[in-house]
Amino acid sequence: MRSTAKVTELSWKPKGIILSGGPWSIYEEGAPILDPAVFELEIPILGICYGLQAIAWHFAKNVILGDKREYGYAIVSTKQHRLFDGLGSELEVWMSHGDKLSSLPPSFLAIATTDNAPFAGIASLNRPIFGIQFHPEVAHTPKGTKILRNFAVGICEARQHWTMEEFVSKEINRIRALVGEKGQVIGAVSGGVDSTVAAKLMHEAIGDRFHAVFVNNGLLRDGEVQEVQETLTSSLGIQLTVVDASQRFLDALVGQIQPEMKRKIIGRIFIEVFQEAGKKLEEEAAGSSKAGDIEWLLQGTLYPDVIESISFKGPSQTIKTHHNVGGLPAVMRLKLIEPLRELFKDEVRVLGATLDIPQDLLWRHPFPGPGLAIRVIGKITNAQLSIVREADKIFIDAIRAAGLYLKISQAFAALLGEGVKAVGVVGDNRCFKLRLLHRTGSANSEFCIDLMSNA
Question: How far is CA 141 from CA 73, 112, 133, in A?
């Protein structure tokens, strides 16, 4: 929930609260300030990064602007404390902060330190309130998950009863209750992990009342249309309608340079196309057993998509507008249904395996919804799309041939645009041509990715 939410808004008492990090300084105008009543709930509280500073600010106003920003790997020395049970006296962690504590709040003690942050971990002597300046939620803090488990299970005494099978059962029941016995759903599918899993879950819930629609936006990879058809129809038994709207998208993108504007245009047209496809499907189904209004639009939105789309005042800094969220028009004929909205990518893959989706589909590399539009820097032309499409295919084929595909989380080619040409040699002659970027990355988390050198 929002960090600025009032305790009176809670309809239930949580086992504990984690105050997440964020991009703010406590001194910034509009920086989120906690409801003081949070600290009177008598439940465990863990502040992470800005969350630690928010705790310290509440009790002592002792946060100062740091003279040296701490960003990247750090070694934290820890004291014996239940938050660090089983972790040893030194931890490799990921830091990302500018402000820091100038002193301990009253009745707090330091439980972790670094050379630059003498109060990298704090704990109240009287109440179960803790703070850590580093980020346990990212893969760059190898034992971070254990810290979170120590807090949630060891300190908050939360029960570990959630299972993916239970999620599937509850979500199918929720979908059926939401859609009703005759409701029709149109699904935005791309062949990627998220939309494929969402489509399979929806098909499990309502069967043929789910209409999967794939839009060819002219910004796809080589052979993408055929691959999606094979995946959805042959492998998963889902009926699929393919809409070729490529020229419509490309016309709307003429002259567009900014990636954010490209995303919004593509998101808007996606919704328009789905609405039109839904109307056509309704007309074709009139008088049959599938007759009925299509009222719902399925999207494979994940929780990171939601985070990326919240504005600073919301209050998480906008990184990019996600095409599944930020591009939606204010007035829609179709209502959104997003069964994966509270899941992360690793959880979606577990869900897919639970639904018996083949592993090769679940481990496909991510491909952005706006497609090659954001892998061509600057203005988009058919010629540039052809170049980046062919380059991407050659690159991915080489990675597969080397047996590296499953060891890499993401790999892609991008065309750097007319303004970034470079001198080269072709046939012993000098040339001055467009530059291609090839990038690979390995990630254990959707929060951070390590760039790999491309040979």
Answer: 8, 14, 12
